[in-house]
UniProtKB/TrEMBL annotation:
<dbReference type="GO" id="GO:0005886">
    <property type="term" value="C:plasma membrane"/>
</dbReference>
<dbReference type="GO" id="GO:1903785">
    <property type="term" value="P:L-valine transmembrane transport"/>
</dbReference>
<keyword id="KW-0813">Transport</keyword>
<comment type="similarity">
    <text>Belongs to the AzlC family.</text>
</comment>
<protein>
    <submittedName>
        <fullName>Predicted branched-chain amino acid permease (Azaleucine resistance)</fullName>
    </submittedName>
</protein>
<feature type="transmembrane region" description="Helical">
    <location>
        <begin position="134"/>
        <end position="151"/>
    </location>
</feature>
<feature type="transmembrane region" description="Helical">
    <location>
        <begin position="45"/>
        <end position="65"/>
    </location>
</feature>
<keyword id="KW-1133">Transmembrane helix</keyword>
<keyword id="KW-0812">Transmembrane</keyword>
<dbReference type="Pfam" id="PF03591">
    <property type="entry name" value="AzlC"/>
</dbReference>
<dbReference type="InterPro" id="IPR011606">
    <property type="entry name" value="Brnchd-chn_aa_trnsp_permease"/>
</dbReference>
<keyword id="KW-0472">Membrane</keyword>
<keyword id="KW-1003">Cell membrane</keyword>
<feature type="transmembrane region" description="Helical">
    <location>
        <begin position="20"/>
        <end position="38"/>
    </location>
</feature>
<feature type="transmembrane region" description="Helical">
    <location>
        <begin position="187"/>
        <end position="206"/>
    </location>
</feature>
Amino acid sequence: MTTRGVKSPYLRGVIDGLPFLAVIAPFGLLFGVISAEAGLSVLDAVAFSVAVIAGAAQFTALHLMTDHAPTIVVLVSALAVNLRMAMYSASITPHLGHLPVWKRALTAYFLVDQTYALSSLEFERREMGVGEKFSYFLGTVTPICLPWYLFTLAGAWAGAAIPTDMGLDFAVPVAFLAMIGPMLRTPAHIAAALVAAGVSLAFAWLPYNLGLIVGGIAGMMTGAQVELVIERRAAPEEAA
């Protein structure tokens, strides 16, 4: 499906966002099912998705909650997973930072991986006014963020009907593997993932899965160092 000839920025956003339904649907359903398995009500599961609207952070928080981790550990872990949103915000500010406060708040709430990726690409390749940019952004939100709530609801309903002894807890690590796998595109990504996994296992003895946070920090530091080494090696070649 192409947006060639589509004049409405909102409709272009909708069309560009539609392919992501192939990802949003299964993960929304999965989160709803696992929420029910963890003991959350249908209302709790939907409220979770509405309040957080970040798949990886939601899976992380839910896993820690089922392990009865302290609230502060759950919050810090979820925030750590979502640190990338701060970079998204800084990147999108030159395009949408001049909007009224309520529109900026709406943008901040719906700024997730997919809406950011689509919007930043569109804003760079097409001349648009701030109003048109906001309309395009809302267009990407429509098939990406709103269905997340609906699929969470459907998954929670389905999960409530599944016996608790079926052991659906295996779905959480599978979900993370499915999310992380496509991201391992560069040596820095691969190194970060390997170090994070190794350190997390080495510190698995820490309570409340704090080893995951230690591993995540180690992975980020490793990835940054690998990127730095690659850039330093590339600099002499470019100069030559």
